[in-house]
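Handout for the seminar on molecular recognition.
Each group receives one record of this type.
Step one: identify the two inputs.
Step two: read the structure output and locate the region that could contact iron/sulfur cluster.
Step three: write two sentences on what you found, then compare them with the reference statements printed after the record.
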Amino acid sequence: MNPTIQTAELNYCDSLTSYSRRKTIPVRVGDVIIGGDNPIVVQSMTTVDTMDTMGSVEQCIRMIESGCQLIRITAPSIKEAKNLRNIRDELRKRGYNTPLVADIHFTPNAAEIAAGIVEKVRINPGNYADKKKFEVIEYTDESYQEELARIRERFLPLVKICKENGTAMRIGTNHGSLSDRIMSRYGDTPLGMVESALEFLRICEDENYHDIVISMKSSNTQVMVQAYRLLVQKLNEGGFKPYPLHLGVTEAGEAEDGRIKSAVGIGTLLEDGLGDTVRVSLTEDPEFEAPVAKALIDRYISRLPHATIDPIEKYPITPFEHTKRESAEIYNFGGQNVPRVITDISRIDGITEKEMKAVGHFYLPELDKWKMNDLGCDFVYSGDHPIPFMLPNGMREIQNFATWEKSQTRENIYPRYTFEEFQSAQDFHPQLNFLEVFDTQVSEVIPSIRNRKDLVLILKTSNAHGMPALRRAFVSLMDQQIQVPVVVKVSYPDQTADQTMLYAATDVGGLLVDGMGDGILISLEKEKAHTREEVLEQIKLHNNVSFGVLQAARTRMSKTEYISCPSCGRTLFDLQETTAMIRKRTDHLKGVKIGIMGCIVNGPGEMADADYGYVGSGKGKITLYKGKEVIKRSVPSEKAVDELIEIIREDGMWSEPEAI
Ligand code: SF4
């Protein structure tokens, strides 16, 4: 049984059903104000060496021109902290007043210098006063208190400098770099992340210093979402001020995967009304980050008024931990099955074998055989345009009921009903039927589906506050102990590929993170007329995005996962080039997680739950990891990818790529 929480006990968001942005205190960062009634701020981070003043300035300008309102620059030691003054002065000389943020790990003395130069300092509470040793140390209450006293002493000078200079601070917890003290008491849990920030926040509040923004980043979207929610809940319960939140998913990766993963984490929280500043971190040049952040944020500008959603009194979903909604196993949906991908091809009349590559199924005419890649969909929805050949690779087809009813063959073909058709139909498939309904129809539908053991619901909404509307429908099903599997259907008429990725990741990913959804269907139904090639491109995008969303929400691993850092001034190799090279050799290793980190200072901590790690440890030198264990140190970079593959092979996780 899913546990039930009284909604009144949840205070991490204003409402589960009506869009409302959390009210926070405004924090001034130079000319920009984060929080309060101000728009959500877009920010990003440079990747050029901080000692390269002109290179940093040029990159900052490119970032500002791409929409970045706040720029973070790494300051790994005193010399970089001092050079922030040159970067700042040059930017101001060229007429750019964008506030700068110094990024600090391990070096309080660099933070204290930077706080006198730039408008904001980011500290990582996991390593500000602690060195990560990966040791589990048993702390008594007394020794724990001694540790806290040590932190206070180390941290107080920075708080005082910030107060004197009007410098803001971000207390930026990272899931991958919690202190041994926190790990020993809380483990690497959302609660541990929250407590890590609160240790530092209490010191700030004692000093009456409140210019603080907080973040709870992780590369695991479930952990990240839970940690931010828990933070707000604890701030409210603990009587802290409502500090603004900086949202981000760490090491999200590149291209489509990076965008989707960022949107699953950030978008889910924006739907909750949380977040005052956003940084999307991609393994791409930083000027590509701000437009993605902006596209995510812009969705909420005119969210109100949206159609009313019934309020929720008892919440059968656990917002601080992942619990999957219990669903019955119907055919290969629900139960313990991974969520299924249904790809909509209904706009293509008479699809050919060759065109099936858009849904990840490849016909090889010379062999008269079919092959499938990792993104081969489970079902295609053909609507009223049946597939004119035998279905390959165990793939199955869903047709509109009226077409299915007339179909000569029903092998691997299943009907999809509207509610009206369902109510009057006499003809059903003995194993699997699909009923498509709006969120607003769910209460009406429940009596007709309660005892069905052959049914999967396809759930959609027309509400502008889409994800919460769908979530409300899930709550109605859960309240009534209805365990039919549910496929979430979304449609984004004629939007850019980026928007489709970001919106589907938010709307479906946000539900999956909270344990709801047994499948995904991105619909073509509202698309305007396009050429056949354009529709096929659209289908391919939808198919790939569907798998990407399931993976980013950590509910179905169908590809290799790359946890690559976005790079910064510490990076010891060309991250984009190296990621592409590693990807080329390993992207057939389904479900394997590979961390690619630019430096050994933060990399091992930041790659969190990667199975293998490729970490820069010196100029031209790479250290290779299996989990958190160092396997080979200082491998020359020309040999490092081969060595990495060798480690994967020795671990029994390697397979040879298949030619398609
Ligand atoms: S892991 Fe990457 S982004 Fe993080 S500090 Fe090192 S080089 Fe910079």
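Reference statements: The first strand starts at residue 5 and ends at 6. The chain is about 35% helix and 20% strand.
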